[in-house]
Amino acid sequence: MANHKGSEGLVKVGSATVAEVKDWSLDQTADTVEDTVMGDAARSRKSTLVSASGSVNAFWDETDTNGQVAMAIGTEVALKLYPEGAASGDTFYSVGAIITSISLNATFDGMVEASFNFESNGAVSVATV
């Protein structure tokens, strides 16, 4: 059984690695419709459309033009999420993503942080490096 440390992960926009990433999340869902008919003893359903959403959280870096800056609100990016690194044979998730919101947070005794939230535009695919 394989498991991985979160520190092995990374995020790419296209082929550019996003700088200063702290964490990321990917939530995949499937819509369902009910197809129960008279005489059935239990409700039954069928899967219909799938979608995904998530976030990328990083220490803000305004010089990361191909990563953080490329994830401008309202833009569609080719997002690649790597949970175990990007060495040969490693698994990653790829999705066309629309950046739906960006949050910046600054405190006097901490780092400036950015959160990029996205929704999928198409299906998530799983591949290996």
Please give a structural write-up:
With 129 residues, this protein is mainly beta. The chain has one domain (11-25, 53-128). 0% of the residues lie in helices and 53% in strands. Strands 1, 2, 3, 4, 5, 6, 7 and 8 form an 8-stranded antiparallel β-sheet that branches. It is globular and about 65 Å long.
Keywords:
eight-stranded antiparallel beta sheet, about 55% strand, globular, single chain
How do you describe this structure in short?
The protein is mainly β.
Low-confidence stretches: none
Mean pLDDT equals 96
DSSP helix fraction: under 10%
Number of strands: 8
Distance between the termini: 20 Å
Q: Major β-sheet, in short?
A: 8 strands, antiparallel
Structural class: mainly beta
H-E string: EEEEEEEE
Strand-residue proportion: over 45%
Blueprint of the fold:
Elements: E1 10-13, E2 16-17, E3 21-34, E4 45-59, E5 76-82, E6 91-105, E7 113-120, E8 125-128
Antiparallel strand pairs: 1-2, 1-5, 3-4, 4-7, 5-6, 6-7, 6-8
